[in-house]
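Researcher: Good morning. I'm working through a list of sequences from a screen, and I'd like to move beyond sequence-only analysis. For each chain I'm collecting a predicted structure so we can compare shapes side by side. This is the next one on the list. No need for commentary yet; just the structure.
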Amino acid sequence: MADDAPRPQAVALAGSGPETEAGPETEAGPADPAAWRPSNRLLARAALLTAVLTAAGAVFGLVRDQLLAHTFGAGTDTDAFLVAWTVPEFAATLLIEDAMALILVPAFSGALARRALGQDTDPVRALVRATLPKAVLGMGVAAGLTVLAAPWLVPVLAPGLPQQALAVDCTRLTATCVLTFTLAGYCSAALRAHGRFLPPAAINVAYNAGIITAVVLLGARWGVRAAAFGVAAGGALMVLVQGPSLWRQLWGKASGRTASSGRTTGARAGGLVVALLAPVIVFAVTRQSQVLVERFLAAPLPAGAISHLNYAQKVAQLPMVLSLMMSTVTFPVVARAMAAGDTGTARRRAEHDLLLAGVIVLGGAATVIAAAPQIVELLFQRGAFDHADTAATAAVMRVYALGLLGHTLVSALVRCYFSASAPLWYPAVVMTGGVTVTAAAGLVLVGPWGAAGIAAGNALGITLSAALLLLGVRRQSIPLDTARLVRGLGRLTAAAAVATAAGWSCAAGPPLLAAPLALVAVTAVFLAAARLLRAPVVPSLIRSLTRTVRTAARRPAHAPSEPPEPTPVDRDVPLHRRHHR
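Model: Good morning. Structure tokens for this chain:
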């Protein structure tokens, strides 16, 4: 449709005021259509939406783990299932959380930036046609080979495991996730690059719902094989909750541009993706190898050791998952800024997100360390999961928590390294060194400390990796102010140490009372100590919280609430400009 004066307009959600910041416009259009900066309001809204759905997925995950603990306990059958669960855990890191996102979010962001320049062919559709069929074919073959190789794979993953045959059966069921997670990860990366965060954030709800349903309906007859079947069903549900939204983004809108004549563009984009594959895959595989190392070292330990490590890790990592919500939302923003050459925006955004993630994960780690026995008893101690299992899991969980800041920094920093769509090998080399330290330390410490020694090796290796990535990011990727970040994180860590002591002293009595009391004590003391130490980010968080409380207190109880904004939930953050012609 033609217009008398073509003027690009930002796609805003609703409300007054501009929702994006851009360079000056001329009569011919924007100075740089690819250089856009979504407002903090939009990013905060998307982060809140993602956090809510991720929290819902985490709750479903806790229900899943409680159901597994109650139904199957922490014995040899559960150990067999958890060895089989290594396949989807490994696949999730490689195909959803790390590799696929680190490769495809920058690739789609670059394609969207080129689309904003008004090319005749659609580079986004060309990218899909150049990459999706190959990914499906390759991972489909990999899934089939995993099914066939299960009898040889299980002894490698867990030598000496008592229930080898059961683990093989479960592995053959969970191997289907290699294909379904590929599709789910592809959809998630593409949708996030388009600024659509609702379906990707819902995948963990769908995945855990599949496992829970299978255990409830089939657990009595199939045993832990029901949980393995639920993993396979959950993988398929992850694709189903995202597929329709991605179809609408790619093919459901009328467009004058086509991908059929953009083979050169698609081939160029596909070639870039292939160039990125090796370093990103090495990084993701090496990082996930920590789980393989842990289960390999734990297999000869008394029955239940692998289960204790699993339950401890699942709970301890919840603060890390929540802390990365903003980084997940802003990764496409950083990637698009780098694609447009706007390193200033990328730097400011990345520094803020790293410090904010540090605040959240350190507060959570302090709570986990202070109240680990009460948290585990509250969540798991029922049915086949007894007091001894609680004590063993809590001891491991406290050690795991020492490495939470390292895990968070690695996950956030690696987005900086790969946001520019450049094949950097430094993160993979660092991660390889970190896993080597994890294995060596675990091998030394597993003798005197058992499962807790394995967790200590994990914490040591990941912390070393985080330190090396932080030191190298300025030279290798976005020019972050490393000294400022180190000072800020150091002050936050000191505040967390004080808060841990306060929470520990309050974590007494019945778990239902002690765990929330420890959380309140840790939060209050952490914020107060961080304020006194002049740690970054915390003062602005306190001011925001104070303003919210005052606004809520001033509003009359009978006052009508503001009408909801008439924006579809699936259009939460506009990451592109539309040109009305």
